[in-house]
Amino acid sequence: MTEVPAANDPTPMQPPPAQFDPGRATAQVSPSGACQTCGQQNPAPADARSGGGWGGFVYAIGRLSAQFPSLSVEKEFAQLAGGATGADLFATAALKRVLADSENIYLARHLCWVFSTQHQDAFTLMPRDDAEVSRLVDLLEPDESDDVMHVLVGRASPVFDRRSPCAAAGLPGVLVDQLLAFPIDEFASAIASTVEASDDAVADGAPGVRTVLLRLTRRADNRGVSDEHRALNYVAMRYPAIYHTVLDAHRQGKALVNVATRHSHAGDQRLVLVVLTFRHHRTDILERYSCLVNVGDIFPFLAGRLEMTYE
Fold first, then answer.
1. Which range marks the domain in which residue 62 is found?
2. Do 168 and 245 fall into the same domain?
3. pLDDT reported for residue 51
4. Could you say which of 132, 165, 182 is where a domain stops?
5. Are residue 178 and residue 189 in the same domain, yes or no?
6. Among the three residues 161, 182, 203, which one is the final residue of a domain in this structure?
7. Rounded CA separation 46/262 (Å)
8. Counting Cβ atoms within 10 Å, is residue 63 exposed (0-12), middle (13-18) or buried (19+)?
9. What is the spatial distance between Cα 250 and Cα 254, in angstroms, rounded to a whole number?
10. Which mean pLDDT values do the consecutive 10-residue runs of the chain (311 residues) have?
11. Is 7 part of any domain?
12. Global pTM exceeds 0.85
């Protein structure tokens, strides 16, 4: 894991590195011969800088998978897979083994690369060249557990490409600017290890970090498209002070009872205020902390550090 700043350092942490363990490969590719859709209509495109439409920016946290868009592609893969049969034929390990051969990269261009959030297919990824296709292959994760998550930063395409292998899925396409994979447990342990506390407190802190991470990123309908959800996903991944504050409050007998967001625009800047509300177990006194995130461009950034606020 990338080194995480100390608890009193407001500098956003660097993104976690891509990680993959080929020894854990299990089924991830659908053998059905068709992309799995979320059952939703493809929304109308919006202005690319609106931030709230399907032509805007994406900062999503979820899972990457590969699916066969047609029986033809599935049969071609079966031939390349050689001796693989049955369920093993469609295991991600077999897919990665086949696509690791540079001569087979052509097949990866015909796969449907799907990014899911909240356990529903949300986007299809649109690689620009073979290098991006190879990157997608490298980041495929072997199972459907929640041990590893992916971070997607990109732009939702305002033009629906009917030539795409995933056109039949009816999902919005995303041009990828950044795609990372990280194990949740390693992420949680790295954050907890930066807290100045006893060893027991640090050990207890990792589950707390995991809980906060999921609470920030798994809100209803969080597909990483709206300004509010992009801000939440950004601070969840890049701002450790959020976790330090929650862990410190927990040790003082306070519980995180609410996470809220609201627009806080200033001039031509698009800002989102992220507000954490805590309640003391014994006194029921509420405390609020907030930070500002600038979401006006493809890469959100911290515009105001986390501080206690009074209302």
1. 22-182
2. no
3. 41
4. 182
5. no
6. 182
7. 21
8. buried
9. 5
10. 42 43 32 36 38 70 91 90 67 84 91 90 89 91 74 82 68 91 89 65 72 87 93 95 92 92 87 96 94 96 94 68
11. no
12. no
Q: Are residues 146 and 261 in the same domain?
A: no
pLDDT score recorded for residue 7: 40
Number of domains in the chain: 2
Neighbours of 64 (CB within 10 A): 21
Domain for residue 230, yes or no?
yes
What is the per-residue pLDDT for 272?
Answer: 96
In a domain, 203, yes or no: yes
For the CA atoms of 63, 68, 69, 74, the dihedral, rounded to the nearest 10 degrees, stands at 180
Give the C-alpha separation, 239 to 223, whole Å. Answer: 20
For residues 54 and 131, membership in a common domain is answered with yes
For tokens 């946290």, the residue is 61
- Give the Cβ contact number of residue 279 at 10 Å: 16
